[in-house]
Design goal:
414 residues, globular, mainly alpha, Na+/H+ antiporter like fold
């Protein structure tokens, strides 16, 4: 079995390298192909990718967690726009107001259609609400200098709401586990620690550590010639360091990693403003560009592994007709309504409004929250039911958006 995995993984990596240019011309993206391969490998006849949402919850949680972290850091590196710019207002509203509206709509539908307990319905809404930074690369910013409002908003939203959804997931888990506790005291403690402190701590830790590490690297480069090929260690080290410190301080680790990426990008922006030559290997511009290149390659590998696992979970029987109904609700009702609710006060073109309203990709972030919940307190029957729903929604999202992204983006004119 192990030998066959060497063959399969080797063949996939070679295909990724050889067929990349051809896949870009197809009316679908690579994630759809990865999902189909994962599904085929997970079928009983193949028996190559047998994963169980409950038995393997901890392993799957770690795999999806690492994938999201790598993607969040990459998203942060793309966001070179200063926080003072009004471009940030729309993604912040999408990651808060729009996300909360989506949670409410999905939770209400799950409670009404399936008769789920309202606490479990709230958890499902929180799991499915955040858009995904991993699988939305086709509609994100093409380069850090891209200031298209729609692309910037989708990129930043995918990074922000993977962190802002976590407090709602925690609230739902608290409600499921503490039925006898006073509601007012629970909500007050949740808001103080899981929202205010967690958000502030995560952002501060990520930004501060990236600034400290970046300055240290540049100081060392000014005295000693930097060996080539070590940027991967800097990238992965900063991701792990910022995430770990934030978690130890009860902050939101996802927001810490996103903030670390944004903070690292500021070195390059300030250097360009001062006119520092990018060709100087000691320069901040060179340092950040090297980190970006390495991180994008790692992200592609992580995406491949995560989508293969989702395909394997789907093949293992995690399919739900309720999941298909909720997917349709998300794509055609909840996402457009929640986006239009925050776009009314924004100066955007018709094309930009439709683009943001349509491209609400659900993916690896939702899978992480599902596995986190499965390993932190919900009973086995509820975990099985939620797993079937969430895997179905995520697989449908990969297929629907994977097929529509390329043709729609080719026609998109801001």
């Amino acid at each position: 079995m192990l030998v066959w995995w060497f063959v399969i993984v080797g063949a996939l990596l070679i295909l990724m390298a050889l067929l990349a240019a051809y896949v870009e011309r197809l009316p679908l993206n690579a994630a759809v192909i990865y999902l189909a391969i994962g599904y085929a490998l997970g079928l009983p006849a193949a028996g190559m990718l047998q994963v169980d949402a409950l038995a393997d919850a901890r392993t799957l949680e770690l795999a999806f967690e690492v994938t999201v972290l790598i993607s969040l850091f990459t998203v942060g590196l793309k966001l070179r726009v200063p926080f003072a710019y009004t471009l940030w207002l729309l993604p912040i509203r999408l990651a808060t107001v729009s996300m909360l509206l989506t949670i409410a709509l999905v939770a209400a539908a799950a409670w009404w259609l399936a008769g789920l307990r309202w606490e479990l319905a709230l958890l499902l809404g929180a799991v499915l609400a955040p858009t995904d930074p991993v699988l939305a690369s086709d509609v994100q910013m093409r380069d850090p200098a891209d200031k298209d409002r729609a692309r910037f908003s989708l990129t930043a939203e995918g990074g922000l709401n993977d962190g802002t959804a976590f407090p709602v997931v925690m609230l739902a888990l608290y409600l499921l586990q503490t039925q006898d506790e006073g509601g007012g005291a629970l909500l007050l403690r949740w808001f103080a620690f899981d929202v205010v402190w967690a958000v502030a701590c995560g952002l501060a830790v990520g930004w501060g550590l990236a600034q400290a590490v970046g300055r240290l690297v540049l100081r060392l480069r000014s005295h000693v010639a930097a060996p080539e090929g070590l940027e991967m260690f800097l990238s992965l080290g900063l991701i792990a360091f910022s995430y770990g410190v934030a978690q130890l301080l009860d902050g939101l680790g996802f927001l810490a990693v996103l903030a670390a990426g944004v903070s690292m990008r500021r070195f390059e922006v300030r250097a360009r403003e001062r006119g520092v030559a990018a060709s100087d290997r000691r320069a901040p511009v060179e340092m950040v560009n090297e980190v970006v290149g390495i991180n994008e390659r790692i992200e592609r590998l992580a995406e491949l592994g995560a989508v293969l696992l989702i395909g394997g979970l789907l093949a293992a029987g995690n399919f739900s007709w309720l999941g298909l109904a909720l997917a349709a609700l998300l794509f055609f009702v909840a996402r457009p309504l929640s986006v239009w609710a925050v776009l009314r006060s924004e100066r955007t073109s018709r094309a930009q409004r439709w683009m943001v309203a349509w491209f609400g990709v659900r993916g690896v972030g939702s899978m992480y929250y599902l596995m986190y919940a499965a390993g932190h307190g919900i009973d086995a029957a509820a975990a099985r039911e939620l797993s079937a729903i969430v895997v179905t929604v995520v697989a449908a999202s990969i297929v629907v958006y994977g097929i529509t992204a390329t043709p729609l983006m080719q026609r998109y004119r801001p």
